[in-house]
Every structure is written in C-alpha cells, then in structure tokens.
Amino acid sequence: MKKTDLEKQKALKLKGKLNAGNPLNRLADAAPAVDRREQRRLDQAAGLVSFPVKLHQPLIAALNAKAQADSISVNELVNTLLAEALKD
User: Fold this and answer.
1) What gap in Å lies between CA 67 and CA 58, rounded to an integer?
2) Model's pTM, two decimal places?
3) How far is 14 from 47, CA to CA, in rounded Å?
4) What is the percent of the chain with per-residue pLDDT over 70, rounded to a whole number?
5) How many angstroms separate the CA atoms of 54 and 60, rounded?
6) Whole-angstrom Cα distance, residue 83 to residue 4?
7) Contact 67/73 with Cβ under 8 angstroms?
8) Neighbouring residues of 74: CB distance < 8 A, sequence distance ≥ 6
9) What is the DSSP code (8-state) at residue 31?
10) Domain locations in the chain?
C-alpha cells in the first residue's frame, strides 16, 4: 500500500468517527432523560395536569422572556400568574 493510500484511509477513518459522534448524544449521556411514562407518573404524583391552550405568538414570547428573566420554567410562571389572577 502506498503512503498516499494509507493517508487517505486514515482521513476516511477520522471523517467517519467525526460524523458518527453526534454532539447531542454527548449531552444526553450526561443527563439521563426520563421516559414519558415515568415523567407522567412523576407529574401525577405532584398533582400536575396537562392543560394545553392556544395563545398568540407575542404573548408566548413575553412569557418565555419573563420566565427566563426570573430563572423559572414557563409552567411555573403560568401557574403563578393564573393563581394570582384567580385569587378571590
């Protein structure tokens, strides 16, 4: 085998390794994901119920910005805002 052929083989091998290594997999390995069934069980134990609604895009953007500014999840923010609005 010629030296150039060997270098080509090395390059192909390296390229294959780079393409195989998905960056998302590295992050997923660090934090194991909870499967849907387990997440549903945890939500039920916490007393959470799914409540999908349709909102206009500017309102969604404002909710996301406020949640990020307050360092809380959007679910927590909406829960707090609704509880305050419905207080008697």
Assistant:
1) 14
2) 0.55
3) 50
4) 85
5) 10
6) 70
7) yes
8) 63, 64, 67
9) S
10) 3-85
